[in-house]
Amino acid sequence: MINKNPFLIFGIFCIIALVLPNVSAIGITPPKYEINFEPRLEKSFTFGILYTPGKTVEVSVGEEYRDEYKKADLSSYVRFDKTEVLIGSDGMGHVTVTLNFPEKINPPGRQRSLITATEPKPEGGGIGGIAAINGVIYINVPYPGKYLETELSSENIEINQPAELIIKMTSRGKEMIKKVSTIIEIYDANGNLVDTLIPKSLTSIVTNDKRELKTTWDTTGVGEGVYTWKAKINYDGNIIEKERSFKIGSLSIRILNFTKQFSQGRISVFDLEIQSIWNAVIKDVYAYINILKGTKTITTIKTPNYDISGWQVKNITAYLDAANLEIGSYPVEIVLHYENKTTTETGIIEVLEGVELEKPSPAAKTPVEKIIIAVMVGLLIVIIIVYLLKRK
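Above: the chain sequence. Below: its structure as tokens.
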């Protein structure tokens, strides 16, 4: 007979509700628009709503949930051509949102209006939340006087490659900025001043105008490492100071650390922590690890092949069988192979008497791995539930 224990059935129902994903997902496209404020301007925007064909989705002005945007209430300036969107056979419906600006909006700055699409309530009720998604319309309201927004941009480079340093600027004030001058100082990882650059000045930047100030730093003869450039930006007597770091690298991989203690008579993990000093992916990286007794190699182990991304720190793993190793210390030679090059590191490992060694921390799971694990656990739970219900 099927077990009709109400507590068991309720528990099963809760597990299924928690584990099984939503069959329908609601979406909105494009996710955002951006507009510069103009007094009395009327502007329309079209959003596409993605959902199950034949269903109706509600749209409304969304509620703010981030403190930095709790500035201006724009809801009274928003109008919809419809508040219920019927989803077509292609899985999409459309809504037009119109903004009618007043003479002025306070306070100034980057304001926004959230446009929320909410899925319909489940037919027949049921347990579970109702999904909703927001589109955003950003409104740039100018500041009184002169106001300059700045952003620094630079990329990691190869050794002896020129470094392009970019300052992106946008005038967000009501008054024109007559002149922008800049001094750039470049520092090494120890805080030592390496170079000073003075780019050309920019002039006549009007409201909402976007400019880029580009300069190039010649890195010939500069060593690899992390460098910081600090920009002191002067616009009509107003000072902005910003900084950003970038890396100069070469096609090489460093060995940062490795496992140094092993338990006698056991197969143990031999971890190598390595770091790429290159901007691109290096493929098929592997290591030979030689365990020595004096100058003679007594055992050699190898890691699998790995790919390592630009500047990535990564653990690669081999396995050491310490069954035939006596208790004591052993010299170790690690030879890392990649792109017809090698990096060698030497050191000492210890084989200890049958002790429980601390296990290395597992590598963090990627989002995809987490999803796969969740799905597998969910399927296992469903299989167990079906088996229990069918058991007589």
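The CA atoms of residues 22 and 131 lie 9 Å apart.
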